[in-house]
Amino acid sequence: MAQLSLKKIAKVYPNGFKAVHGVDLEVRDGEFMVFVGPSGCAKSTLLRMIAGLESISGGELVIGNTVVNELPAKQRGIAMVFQNYALYPHMKVWDNLAFGLKLAGTPKAEIDSRVREAAKLLEMDHLLDRYPKQLSGGQAQRVAVGRAIVKRPEVFLFDEPLSNLDAKLRASMRVRLTELHQTLRDKGMPATVVYVTHDQVEAMTMGERICVLKEGTIQQVDTPAALYERPANAFVAGFIGSPEMNQHDVELSVTSDDVAFSFGGVRLPLPVVKADRLRSRGNGAVKLGLRPEHITAIASHAGAVRVPGTLRFMENMGSEVFVHAELGGLPFTSRVASDALGDLVGKARGDSHVFHVQMAACHAFDSANGVNLLI
């Protein structure tokens, strides 16, 4: 396989619209990198530029040791899996898998060997004699992946490949693709993967590293755990995590005794380490960030701050409950284990309840530019 290097990559359309703004990114050899972001953030445009399906307006794209800006797609050593599978309906699965190899003039014996190896790897040996119309969505997606594998490319590109599948099938295919990447690595055939999705759950569960994009610029590149625990800014914090992080503009109150967030009659003192980071800012507006799991229904962590609230509604998810409430007049979501609801059980909309806020896990973002002030 090969590493992928993007240096100041830009995309400007003829009408003057700049879709990609000088992206710098290194994808390591054999890495599973995920591009994630909302619709319109240019993640698919960036992928198509790597694939050679979209021209590059500026910067340098390197695959392995080769600058590929001007190389046609077929010479870049890439294989791409599309959202719509793009299978040939008049060809059986075997022929769909073999088609690209036939065009490349690969010997028949090698074609058959590669096709059967990919079919075995993807557990679809029994599908080789079927036509695409006889396949389920998940099976068709596996054929599309198999077609990429048989080419033995330098880099695999996936453009939202699971978005047409139902929720259950998406979950199983996430596992299959992640295991496939690990299996190829174990076999001594490490696959460099760039995977595009708008689904942050896919990104968090599949990516070894994640590149978060917004309006054609990179917001942060890091491991799933680092993005979740140490988001670089308010956008990343809000995009990564489900339910999303609670974020509200509040007042930073600095006194000789402590540093606290204040809003609607509620005062949340910060632990010493975090207080010391913010003390020099003095009084003023900041954005408070709290993950739902850090607002609990019962006292479960030492040092948590007790905050009275009013219930709005509860979503029972089975093993956990999403509790929506107002604290100090602002809406907050709390994620609570079903066996840790305490006396929330039986309460209804409008009832009062005391929540416990773990300030050791809070975030503070600059109100103007969204930068995380505590990392």
State the separation between the terminal residues, measured CA to CA.
35 Å
Instruction: Give the H and E element order.
Output: EEEHEEEHHHEHEHEEHHEEEHEEEEEEE
Number of strands: 20
- Kindly name the structural category: alpha+beta
Mass-distribution shape: elongated
Quote the CATH topology of the largest domain: Rossmann fold
- Sequence of strands across the biggest β-sheet: 6-7-8-3-9-10
| Helix content range | 25-40%
Radius of gyration equals 25 Å
Strand % is: 25-35%
Query: Unreliable segments (pLDDT under 50, ≥5 consecutive)?
Result: none
| Alpha plus pi helix count | 9
Main pleated-sheet profile = 6 strands, mixed
User: What's the CATH H-level superfamily name of the largest domain?
Assistant: P-loop containing nucleotide triphosphate hydrolases
CATH class of the largest domain: Alpha Beta
Total domain units: 2
CATH architecture of the largest domain: 3-Layer(aba) Sandwich
Overall pLDDT, averaged?
94
